[in-house]
Please model this.
Amino acid sequence: MTVKKTSDAIETFRRYLKLHNHNITETRDRIVKEIFMMNYHFEVADLWKRLHGETQISSSTVYRTLDLLVEAGLVKMVDLGEAHAHYEHIFGRRDHDHLVCTDCGKVIEFPATAINDEIEKTAAEKEFTISSHSIQIYGSCRNCAAKNKK
Model:
């Protein structure tokens, strides 16, 4: 993610916080900056490790800020088939879904234009307003499928 997009994400988050009467803090800015430097699906523990060495940010602040980022539509919680949540930043990125290898844990993102079109069509037919959606397809990646055949 470029510095410009990171600063745009921070500004967008600040506007969201102000609109919803939340405090705008340097700590929250720092968390957003760190998240938008990670170009992969991350766990709270990953983020905590990256933040913990240089600042005294509590884990509760990290969790609360992540919740606000999800509410603001800048970050998405993703279920990758594990007992804990994963997150990814979605601000400025095209919509996509995930193929998740249940053997090695590899996550492959793919644009789901046709699927999304069908979801929107079905929602319109049912007079349903979509707030979000998430598709994860579980199976084996090429390498693991080849290993499993042997």
In short: The chain has two domains: 1-93, 94-150. Residues 28 and 71 are 14 Å apart (CA to CA). The first strand starts at residue 75 and ends at 78. The first helix runs from residue 3 to 19.
